[in-house]
Structure formats: C-alpha cells, structure tokens
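Backbones bend. To wit:
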Amino acid sequence: MSFDLAFTPHLPFSLLLFFSIAGAAISALRMFQSLWGGVFRLLTICLILAFLIGPQWRQTEGEILPDIVLLLEDKSRSIGFGARDDIAEEAILETEAQIEALGVELRRYAFGDQLSTDFTEALRGSLTDIPRDRLAGVVVTTDGQLHGPLSPLPALEVPIHSLVVGDPDTQFDRRVEVVSAPRFGVVGDVVDITLKVTAQNETGPLRTQLLMGGEEY
C-alpha cells in the first residue's frame, strides 16, 4: 500500500500563474493600507488557488508480481528416439521445482513438430504474453544444437540456457542441409536436389532414409 499526492487543475497552468501573480500584487498593495487586511486577502487567494489546483490524496494498493522464467520444450520427432523425451521431462520437472522454490513463476512452451524445430519462431511466439520487465531468463530443453542465422531473434537482456539431453557417447547431433535445389519443378519431370548430412564426431558410412509423404522413398 502506498500514498501519494496528485493534482488535477481546473484551469490551465498559464491562468493559474496569472491569478497567482495578480493575487500577490493585490495583497501587497492592501498591506500598505492595512497589514491584517492584506494578510487575510492573501490567505483567501491561497485557498482559492489551492482549490483550483485540485490536490488529491490517493491511496494505492497492489501486489508484487514474481519474475518469469520461460521454458521452451523441444517436441520434435527426434527427441522421441532413445527415450530422450523421458530424460527431458525429468530434467524439466527438476528445473521447475528449483525455479519455483525461488519464488519465480515458470511458464512452459512446447515447440517443434515432425518436420522442423524452429527455435526463433518459438521464442518470438512465446514472448507475446510475457511482460519484458518480468522476464528473468529463458531455458531450452532440446536434443540438438542451434544453427543458422539467429538475427531475427527478439532483443533480450536476459540469459538463455540450453539443456541438451541424450547420451553424448552413443547419440550425436546431425544436421541436414540443402546444398542446391530448383526454385520450382514441373509435375512428372525429374529434378535434382543435393543434400548434405553433417554428423558430428562420427566416422564411416552413414545410413540415410528419405521419406516422402510419410513413406520411405
């Protein structure tokens, strides 16, 4: 609860200033004739000006809102391999308990689908209903690494943490890059598309599988 003094003038400031100067001058002239008469007139003018200024004593009641930590959950297809989704959920629950123990609000936001994991779009969409002055940090649970340009990311002055789940000895991060592809194709004609698969910390042949419409091609 807080108290403050506010003013709602009934006249423009220029008119109030004019009446103040005119009233002070009239009261000063009156004092030459009668001291007490001039003082009485000055007090009367001050009361009138105080009314015109419109002072108000306001009482405000409110509550302190907690900070918010945004938790982005990767729900892409790959996180379901090797029970990584269970590992991620366990990490999320532990993180949630630690954050809420500090009196901080945690908001979870799922992103990703069967085809893509767009972190930039997920971050932009999840921030639409979070006041920036209450955002304390961002935590991302994922099974991969971010890559590509991140310039479209909203400007944030909070830390972004990443919890990468999975076994680093048996599960590696892979990335598929489109090297070349035509801008359009004609139905029935053959087009050439060149893809590059990057597998970190892996050597030897890499088995690949191409799906089209959910079926192996």
Remarks:
- Helices lie at 13-33, 35-53, 84-101, 119-126.
